[in-house]
Amino acid sequence: MAACRKWFVIGIVFGMETALAAEYRRLCESPQTRQPLAYLRLRRAIRTVVEHRDIEPGQALPSERDLSQALGLSRVTVRKAIAGLVEEGLLTQRHGAGTFVAERIVKPMSRLTSFTEDLRARGLNPRSEFFERGIGEVTPEEAMAMNLSPGAAVVRLHRVRYAGDEPLAIERSVVPASVLPDPMLVRDSLYEALERRNCRPRRALQRLRAVSLGAQHARLLHVATGSAGLSIERRSFLDDGRVVEFTSSWYRGDIYDFVAELHTD
Ligand code: GLP
Question: pTM of the full predicted structure?
Answer without folding.
Answer: 0.67
